[in-house]
Amino acid sequence: MRAVSSEKTTPPVLVFWIAAGWIGFCLFPWYMLEDGLWSFGWLFDGYPFDEDYAPALFLVGQGEKLWLAPLLIPLALPLLVLRRPKSDPAYARILILSGALGIVWIIAQGFGIGIRGFTYDWLTALFGELDDRQYGMGYGAMICATAFLFLFTQGIAARGAINGDVFVVSAIGGVIAIVTAFVFFPIARMLFAAFITEDGAYSIAVFFSKFFDDRLWGLGCLSGTRCGAAWNSLFLAILVGFITTVLGLAFALVVTRSGFRHKRALRALTVLPIITPPFVIGLALILLFGLSGTVSEAVAEAFGIQPTRWLYGLPGVLIAQTLAFTPIAFLVLIGVVEGVSPSMEEAAQTLRANKWQTFRTVSLPLMRPGLANAFLLGFIESMADFGNPLVLGGNFDVLSTEIFFAIVGAQYDQGRAAVLAMVLLFFTLSAFYAQRMWLGKKSYTTVTGKGDAGVHPVMPRGLSIPVHCVVISWALFTVIVYGMIVYGSLVELWGVNNTLTFKHYVTAFSIGMTEHGLHWSGAAWDSFWTTIMIAAIAAPLTAAVGLVTAYLLTRQSFAGKNAFEFGTMLSFAIPGTVIGVSYILAFNVPPIEITGTGIILVISFIFRNMPVGVRAGIASMSQLDRSLDESSLTLGANSWQTFRKVILPLLRPAILAALVYSFVRAMTAISAVIFLVSAEYDMATSYIIGRVENNDYGLAIAYSTTLIFVMLAAVGLLQLLVGRVRIGRRMHHATERPA
Amino acid sequence: MTGTTLGSKAAPVRFDGVSKVFGKDVVAVDSIDLQVDAGKLVTLLGPSGCGKTTTLRMIAGLEMASSGRILIGDRDVTRLPATDRDVSMVFQSYALFPHMSVLENVMYGLTFSGFVKEEARNRAMQGLDLVGLKGFDTRLPSELSGGQQQRVAVARALVLEPQVLLFDEPLSNLDAKLRRQVREDIRAIQQDLGLTVVYVTHDQEEALAVSDEIVVMRNAAIAQIGTPRQLYDAPNDRFVADFIGEANLLHCEIVSVEGDEATIDIEGYRHRLPARGLPPGPATIAVRPSRLVIGRDEGVPATVAKATYVGVRMEYTLTGGFGQVFAVHDDVDTPLEPGTEVHMGFATRGPVLLPDED
Ligand SMILES: Nc1ncnc2c1ncn2[C@@H]1O[C@H](COP(=O)(O)OP(=O)(O)O)[C@@H](O)[C@H]1O
Ligand SMILES: [Mg+2]
């Protein structure tokens, strides 16, 4: 009985998308609304005839925007397939044709006609001057474009791709479309911007003049002056990568191979980078070692040395980044160090190697790919870091801040920002590529799933003592730094007036009572609520995109899957500053015109954090036995029903984790955000940076502390919930195979 | 519709030149032809890696054939995905959904087959009844023993009244005692409901016990198809002879062929048996251990190299000019001592001629 239903009647999904296309065209305002997506004033303000709010049908009917009229063809075409069986070759052909036509036409008209008529001179030359104009896509255009996309994927499915599985083909199509629109397109736009001269023409010379700039590649520091930002970034990133790897390894060794008693406390350090806005460490360092810092003054008093500005520059940024990124290396290396099979080490010992020889000849070589991995991660993080160099950089220019100043500062030079972003992107992508291609094949982690009954040997003594010293002192330093943050938020005016006060918290978060009820009078509330709102909207979307992508990657095989995976993970290696620049370059003109809105923030978070969701999804999906999906399929559920009824319920912990992490990351992000905020949508982090620039450290630190506690609460809540869910999940005895 | 009992819509399965290639050059199944009649239980038997699971998954639609045609009933299902085929499968790991109760598991497929909830529930309860799990419906899979989980998996597949029911090594996660019981249960249900069942195993004893027909596979191809008796008594070649039960393979000479009777000679010992189309000349003879007659005067001269008492019978290893053979003997009261000189003969029925492969 299953087979019959799927062949004769038109699938409801198809009817849905055909209808959606028409509704988008006939009912919703075609263009972007001035007051944003959430205002519904348009409904009572001249809709549907007012030009600003009119649906496409009404525009065309009134003889305006006639270039939208051809869309009626691909909208009408699918009506032809309504009575046809799926197996009819015409069914697939018509859907593919109409979907492709619709998408291509929407893209072509969107790029071809902008706010000043034709966008390209050759169009004007061909058709003459156009007196009309159009703005960015709104509800109607979005719905229409989506409908065309899914008509297209249904056509592809009907032709037999992925065994005709509509859900899987549509999911692949959807992910490709959004990644293209919001990762590849803005990056490409930015690359083009590097070649644009002041009067808008393209020129290679412009690119070269900006590329071979002394401020970028100069080697002055060898002879006493300043080096270019590219060399600075590279040098800093290599140093940070190296130091964080060594420290991370030391931490991992102490946790996994020693009798150290406070291992749990050490592990807790790994949460820190997740909940700390990146520049906060920089602020704490200023409180300690700045001109009026605690340590500086103590030293000055004791030895009579004048405090200097040594912190501002390479040393400060290096210390801040090392503090910030060591926990990341630690987290990676715990896995690596634990992953070395104890039986290898035990075998070495039975072959008469002593502890030190075992460590040197077996353990360390087996960890080598993991070490390289940690190094590359530190390298990428350092390159991409924006907050610490901004706060502590002084005259030490690095790429990420230079990009910012190129576009925000007095110079306002988009081309230079684009060139700098390209160089930065080149560095991070090379590291990312090395990590994937070279290390991907060389992982020695020997966890097999078979019960590996051995125990890791403890470190040899000669190694153990220095490692413990380093770890304990670094951990103490970290604790002091974080303590400083809390303390600093409670001090009247750092270094000048050290009386304790709640003043800064009051300024930031006071709540007044008026006759209208609560009044959020604190200076920080605005950005605080905006941040919570944007993060709360972005989190479920990020989790959804991430999990669907993870499902496709672990459970489906299709042509081009490797490229697909690379594309979806790529945004991990794109520094936030690059995303920021490329977004303002790409999205402040039609067809997607969203700068200054909250949407652009939400979108940037989705694609910045998507790799986190994908990773979480892949990790937990690969623990679910494939036969669960397969048996669901043989029981007559289709892949969508299987995804919803079997996979999603079993993934609840992963979903929760993806949700909380994308929420938290959205709250701590700064690098992309700082380009994208607007007066209306200011975010906590950019507000804090603004305070720092005004030397208002008290408020900045009080706000940061509040954020840290809010996020700590979020992560704690997650741990609690996931713990619960796991117990409620009653483990899978059913899928366990005896060894 | 309440009160309906579970029945079956058993349909035949046919493979026409079906191949499956993984990647570029891993040939898992190489152009096989196969006919499974409606209402029969057919096992796919063969050593690990020979392509049994792949063949089964192609019937289910979990793997798509690289070439050839697959028919279920009259319908060509070659390109049809699993969801749209009327086939159910019992997985080696059972694949019970850990977040659903036993009843929800069994109802799962029914809800996608257009049954109203009440009817789906009814059928699911009947299915549980059929596998002897009445009263377990509210439990979670993790609260059942391995054997019970197994039966839930069977019930879940059965209640859909599939055209074909597939089993992939269903007994491999059970202990030896339970295995015998479960395989008899499966066979009984299959015969009661008249189901078409395709069953994968690598255990020849299991295959012989449950099958109407056995398909022996080797290296991605079919080595022989036949009833258990045919395979045991008349294997096509050394591989089948050796894989199904133990067989002693001996070189011999066919001295003459009259009609379909051949006379063979081993070191002067003559024996008559079906010729199976072989011409005079060198050949191989396969003899089951129980079909070797150990006597004092007639047969090939041999020496007892080893004698083992295993309770119900004696097991001997004999050596001689032919090499070494393994024989069993029911007489446990007067065992032969190692070193005894004996003559080894063949029972009148049992030995079969195989073409000489070397
Ligand atoms: N998904 C796959 N990709 C590549 N090779 C496979 C895949 N599945 C099975 N094979 C190969 O096909 C051959 C047959 O496998 P299978 O059908 O599982 O054998 P078995 O008879 O043990 O069930 C084996 O050599 C196996 O390695
Ligand atoms: Mg198998």
Keywords for this entry:
heterodimer, A: mainly alpha, MetI-like fold, 3 domains, two-stranded antiparallel sheet, globular, disordered C terminus, B: 358 residues, alpha+beta, OB fold (Dihydrolipoamide Acetyltransferase, E2P), 2 domains, six-stranded mixed β-sheet, 20 strands, binds adenosine-5'-diphosphate, binds magnesium ion
- Reading off the top of the CATH hierarchy, the class of the largest domain in chain A is best stated as Mainly Alpha
**Which chains make the largest contact?**
A-B, 37 and 40 residues
Number of domains of chain B: 2
Oligomer: heterodimer
Our count of helices of chain A gives 33
Number of DSSP E strands of chain B = 20
Which cofactors or ions or other ligands sit in this model?
A: adenosine-5'-diphosphate, magnesium ion
Annotated CATH homologous superfamily of the largest domain in chain A? MetI-like
Please state roughly what percent of the residues of chain A sit in beta strands, choosing from under 5%, 5-15%, 15-25%, 25-35%, 35-45% or over 45%.
Answer: under 5%
**Percent range of helical residues of chain B:** 10-25%
Classified in CATH, the superfamily of the largest domain in chain B is: P-loop containing nucleotide triphosphate hydrolases
Radius of gyration of chain A: 29 Å
Question: How many beta strands in the DSSP annotation of chain A?
Answer: 6
Taking the sheet with the most strands of chain B, its summary is: 6 strands, mixed
Query: Unreliable stretches of chain B, pLDDT < 50, 5 or more residues?
Result: none
Assign the CATH topology of the largest domain in chain A.
Answer: MetI-like fold
Mean pLDDT of chain A: 81
Strand order of the largest sheet of chain A: 1-2
